[in-house]
Amino acid sequence: MKEPPEGFTTKAKITRVVDGDTVDVLIERRMRIRLEDCWAPETRTRDKEEKARGLAAKQFAKDKLLHRDVVVHIPSDPEGEIKDVFTFGRAIGRVFLDGEDFSAIMVREGLATETKNG
What is the phi/psi pair of residue 51, to 5°? Predict the structure, then answer.
C-alpha cells in the first residue's frame, strides 16, 4: 500500500521505538501506534529465542524510524468514522516512511508477519 486510505492521516515524528511492532509518534502530543498487519516477536518474554528475534525487530525499527518524519494513518470504517482502534492505550494504525508502509517493510525483512500466528 503506497498511500493511506481514508481515515485519520497526519504527519508525525517517531519519538520512541517500543518494540518491532509498536512506536510512539509526536503529533501535537505523543500517541502510541500499534502497527496494523505487523506482528513482531515479543521483547518482554521468558522465551530467549523469541526475545532475541524481538530485540532484532526492535533495533531494526529503531534504526529506520527514530527521529524520522513519517505519515501516520488510523483507518476509518465505511461511514468515515474512526474505527474502534484503541487497545492497551495505543491506536491501531499504519506508519509510512518515505511513502512506504512500515508494516510491509518489517514483513519483507522477515522481522514480523502480517498475522499474529503467521
Answer: -60, -45
